Amino acid sequence: MQASASSRLVELDFFRGLVLLVIVVDHIGGSILSRFTLHAYALCDAAEVFVFLGGYATAVAYGSLVARHTESAARRRFLRRAFEIYRAFLVTAALMLVVSAVMLMLGIDAPNVTTADIEELAATPLRALADILLMRRQPYLAGVLPMYALFALAVPAMLPLARRRPVVLLVGSIVLWAAAPFAADWLPHAEDVQWDFNPLAWQLLFVLGVLAKCQPIYQRVSAHRLGWLVTVAAGVAFVIAAWYRLGIEAAPPDGSLKQNLAWFRLGNFVAIAWLAAGLVESGWVKKVARALPWIGLVGRKGLLCFVCGTAISLVVDSLLFKFTEGYLNYPLGLAADAIAIGALLLVAKGSEPITRVLAVRVKTTA
After folding, report:
1. Residue range(s) defining the domain that contains residue 66
2. Which superkingdom heads the taxonomic lineage of this protein's source (predicted)?
3. Does residue 185 belong to any structural domain of this protein?
4. What is the mean pLDDT of residues 212-226?
5. Count: domains in the chain
6. What pTM was computed for the model?
7. b/e for 144-178, b at 16 or more Cβ within 10 A?
8. Within a domain: 242
9. Torsion angle of the four alpha carbons 148, 149, 150, 153, in this order, in degrees rounded to the nearest 10
10. Does residue 110 sit within a domain?
């Protein structure tokens, strides 16, 4: 993208905030808004966008650290970041267990309540806790964070390759993605439990996000005299996927296809990302982001909003299921959407004063 770094961050924060809001409503079974989000008309969903943007944001942060300090400082920061994400995973896992336990005590046995994890914790508490600490057990929405912790550990090796040998990084990433389904059982996991996101597969999207920041791929291709053909192909792929999703696919696909990032999910996302890059280049996304700054605020508080969003969506989903008995109810569904989105905005807004106080203290002690 040809815009300055600051404007690019405005667009990045907007997309990240939008995706976090979508993730919250997408995990509310009776949500009305989720009937119109990405998964409703595409073969992929917000998870692909979340991981790709994570790679892009990581490249932005790493490059900024290198520019302001040194490469070794950037490496140390991302090693600490991996530990921060691991702690966020433990907090999220605890939230999933506590919320589920409260719901069960209230007699609310909603579909997304982590009943199996609660039963395992009650039967063998030490083993269940050890499984969580070792990431062998990942209660409900906590499952994406172990993957991110591994990505953060790989960043110090990944970013130099993205800058200097991008083809080597991309080819290696594709090979690993292709082999990922065969290596899924090698990941640490408790009995009869699998990772929701196979990091060996999903790393390809993270790498694509890193490369999108480190290499001017979109600019080079779109500037070519035949570059418009790529945009046309992306548009055709988007329409075909939407036609299939809306008109042919009757039942949800097998969960392993998402776990291992099936090729059609990847291809559909790449087409959407290409079209979105065109909107960014046109300046349209920047205008929308400035008109809706509250979405960017959620994006800037990404990790905090994700962790709190998991609890918000599980609570709202469970209570909505209780009141509607699992049936679609438009007034209650819209109310649930409004409550969930409002709660996440309050989290983002409420964290601002705390962040400012901490920033002042850091400057004072520096």
Report:
1. 5-216+283-365
2. Bacteria
3. yes
4. 93
5. 1
6. 0.92
7. bbbbbbbbbbbbbebbbbbbeebeebbebbeebbe
8. no
9. 120
10. yes
